[in-house]
Amino acid sequence: MDDQGDVKKKPLFTDLDADQDESPVTEVESLCMNCHSQGVTRLLLTRIPFFKEVIVSSFSCDECGYQNNEVQTGGNIQQKGVTITLRVRSKQDLNRQVVLSPYASVSIPSLEFEAPPNKGSLTTVEGVIDRTVEGLTQDQPLRKALDPDTAAKIDIFIEKMIKLKETLDGFNLVVDDPSGNSFIENPYAPKPDPDLSGTNYTRSLEQNKLVGILGDDALENLTEEEHANESDVHTLDQSNEVLSFPANCPSCNTPCETNMKLVKIPYFKEVVIMATNCEACGHRDNEVKGATGIEPKGIKTTLKLTKPSDLTRDVLKSDTCGVVIPELEFELTHGTLGGKFTTVEGLLTKVRDQLMGSNPFVQGDSSDESHRNKLTTFCGKLDEIISGKRWGVHLVLDDPAGNSFLENVYAPEPDPEMQVEYYDRTFGQNEELGLNDMKTENYTTDS
């Protein structure tokens, strides 16, 4: 028993290393779909640039010689889906890198064109257009023989797609990914891109089924489970109890436990803090959720960093909060990094690590050197703030939901270096929070 307890868990997804003592390939006997004999499937769970975790599978059958290879993404499904819109205005925009997950659809509204989800790929905006043209051209000879009218219409559409690359009158490219794992390169990073916008949204039931989170009968089962456990949930003393539930490590996907605790923050409100500690890879993470819903007004908090103690202030950043540092012309959009309970120093460190460690467009041999150097320079400025070598900068937390908090060390007196502003949300902000379609009166009657 002691020997088993000393066995250290290993990450599910490992980096390829020629000096590994054990082979990372797993072999499983499986049925050949060609001759129905027993073949062998080899599975490799590893990490590669741009796609993070991947599952490489290779099947071979010695009886008939049939072989099949496939690559699947093994990363986590994000909490929310994402819609990314790029306004293409120049030839440089055609060279922007695009990462598409297997669940992502691509559309060009001006041509009323939409490509359904396909295999995951790393391409460019021009590559998306070329792949569309190639797919439509493939069966044109057969169409011209069987249905000349349809073939002629497709030829006209292909010409329009090709002209998008030549005339550059400007068009929108929209990527909609329920899994939240698709990206379009921002060459201006870490500054905002005026031609690139992204919106996170809550997945529908059908989209949760599409990405594999729920089964086909999830609606009925979920409803029954909620009704069965409703009374139990309300009897828990959540303020004095730490709850644990199984989860997967966001870094290596190894099964681990997440602890959850309801915490009351002085001069603020109650929040739910969830912390994950992975024994396999050592990854530690925490996430914060508001426990009191959306506030009537948004909140914008501005802190001027003037002394080392400012870096130790507690920060509660909700998953709807954006972060701005005006002196560095830096803006972190709403939803990035998720909810965090940390310090000012910890938040800046998370931002730096996100820009360099998790950015798919600055990793690997194919990354643009000027883009990488620009981010390195910016991260150097962040390091100056973190190490206390640069003062006088402002940290702005802008949360339309009103669920973010920055510690006031002079509380209950006003903080001379901190400004708190409450504001009315715009229609667009209410739309992102799902408030515009929410019916709060007479909701039992038909609208």
Description:
The protein is built from ten helices and 24 strands. Helices cover 25% and strands 31% of the residues. Helix 4 packs antiparallel against helix 5 (148-167). The chain has helices at residues 2-6, 91-94, 125-137, 140-146, 148-167, 205-210, 218-234, 344-357, 369-386, 427-432, and strands at residues 25-31, 38-48, 52-60, 67-73, 81-88, 97-100, 105-108, 113-115, 121-124, 171-177, 183-184, 196-201, 243-248, 255-264, 270-277, 284-290, 298-304, 314-317, 322-325, 330-332, 340-343, 394-399, 405-406, 418-423. It has 447 residues and is α+β, with helices and mostly antiparallel strands. The strands form six sheets. Strands 8-7-10-5-12 form a five-stranded antiparallel β-sheet.
Provide a count of the helices: 10
Helix content: 10-25%
Low-confidence stretches: 1-6, 220-237
Overall average residue pLDDT: 81
Q: Main sheet: which strands, in order across?
A: 8-7-10-5-12
Q: Beta-sheet strand percentage?
A: 25-35%
What composes the largest sheet? 5 strands, antiparallel
Q: Indicate the radius of gyration in whole angstroms.
A: 25 Å
Oligomer: single chain
Q: What general form does the structure show?
A: globular
How many strand units? Answer: 24
Sheet/helix structural class: alpha+beta
Query: Span between N and C termini?
Result: 63 Å
